[in-house]
Amino acid sequence: MIEIEHITKRYGETTVVDDVSMVIEPRTVTVIVGTSGSGKTTLLRMINRLVEPTSGTIKLDGTDNRSVPGHELRRSIGYAIQGNGLFPHRTVAQNIATVPSLLGWDAARIKARVDELLSLLQLDPAAFGPRYPHELSGGQQQRVGVARALAAEPNVLLMDEPFGALDPIIRTKAQEDLLAIQKRFGTTIILVTHDMEEAVHLGHRIAVMDAGRLVQYATPAEILARPANDFVETLIGTSDRPFKLLSLGAVGDAVEPGQASGEGIRAGASQRDALAELLWSGRAAMPVTSEDGAALGRVTVEGLLKRAARPQ
Amino acid sequence: MKAWIPLLLRLCLLALLIAFLTNPLWFEPLLKPLTQNGAPAIYNQGSLMSLAIQHLRTVAIATAAAIVVAVALAILVTRPVGVEFLPLSRSLVNIGQTFPPVAVLALAVPAVGFGEKPTLIALFLYGLLPIFENTLTGLTTTPANIVEAARGAGMTGWQRLLKVELPLSVPVILAGIRLSVVISLATATIGSTVAAKTLGEVIIAGLQSNNLAFVLQGGLIVAALAVLIYDALSALERMAAKRMGQVAA
Hints:
The structure holds two protein chains of two kinds.
Chain A: E1 2-11, E2 14-24, E3 29-34, H1 40-47, E4 55-60, E5 63-64, H2 70-75, E6 77-81, H3 92-96, H4 98-102, H5 107-120, H6 125-128, H7 138-150, E7 156-160, H8 168-185, E8 188-193, H9 196-202, E9 205-210, E10 213-218, H10 220-225, H11 230-236, H12 241-248, E11 265-266, H13 271-281, E12 285-289, E13 295-300, H14 301-308
Parallel strand pairs in A: 3-8, 3-9, 6-7, 7-8, 11-12
Antiparallel strand pairs in A: 1-2, 1-4, 4-5, 9-10, 12-13
Chain B: H1 4-22, H2 28-31, H3 48-78, H4 86-98, H5 101-112, H6 116-140, H7 144-152, H8 157-187, H9 200-208, H10 212-243
Helix pairs in contact in B: 1-10, 3-6, 3-8, 4-6, 5-6, 6-8, 7-8, 8-10, 9-10
């Protein structure tokens, strides 16, 4: 659990982060959203003390993060940044091994961990380990950046616009990978982005920052349904609000009894995908199957449209 | 196909240089037309080979000292504790560069006597600036996101310096060293005016006895050494840059 209590950061006269308090539950993904200059990155960097707050405290599992020297604290917290920041003079394996070697792990343990992470991110350890970062594609570099951040098995992973430099297709894949990793290791992830779409997709909870203040901190559904002010509403974008809302729910939750013909959809897919598929294929209903292929019922355009309406 | 031509030219130059230093008499017929009144065409007051080795030794010692001091100074002024010393250090190394080596020789002789020492001092001072400025550039232009990642990974200031900032600066530092070495190779010749054993001895002997052959052979040997060392260091620099993933120019 991460408790942020009355954190303020001032640079001279300018207040960058203004009295922010929030509690981040363990093993969840929290996304901090805001425009540039909203203080979201500064807030993130105060958690691992890359920036020291002017006032206020941050507690990690009840312990003040100032109780250990900054560099030791940072070794226990994963950190991934935009443009990955890989060390160009070190191989992929050496990059991933950065924190474990700072912590003094023995060579065998480091190698095992590097291989595990590379395999997990679908990079062949034998082929990619000895390569240099400039020999990789952007998406591969980003994955290595995530692997490096996770190398020392941190409980907390901080990510600053980690997908900002990726093209849309690779970004979607990287987001899926991140969610899978989060499920597997149970890491608490705090991610900064300016993209509300990404926030709604990834976050268990979303913190919206504006001009250094925390404007709203709630679940994605809550934020979509009841934006705290005009700023949050603008950030969501009014035109595709209903679709964002649908993207939060699984098809399995919208199943109605009955039959439908044609190609089906799996219960795990999002309701937004189901609606898109129905509209595109010109059907009013389509069958829903469970992950193992058993028929569960159907989804209808009508049913989905009801779910897309603003919750009362 | 064309890539090996420059290499071949350099190998030829190297072979020619070694041949000249080991068997200068082979080249006597070539240089003879430049002499007058039956003066010797090949320097005869000492071995050219040993002079060349002395010359290189002087440059090597002076440059090594300049590297140690300039790199250490650049590291100091880029640490939080040393930032205040940056303007002072800049002025000091700039003085070293603007002060003419001849003047340094003149001032150093009364203090340390004739011979190699005043030359070493002059070359050391003269060589500081390029190495210092390049190290400074290298250390201060490490890409921000890489420094950020190093901090985020929990490296201390010294770990960042040794594991990230210095290794990434190697190509730029090497460029500074190359510049410094080439300047020193040429400047070392004037050391012979205060009795240092360098190739300048040959040139000075030629000037004193109006023997163009001496001047030419002294100058050509220094020039050949400078070209070869310059190219070798450039190649080293390109290798380093390639390893850093930087595109070699």
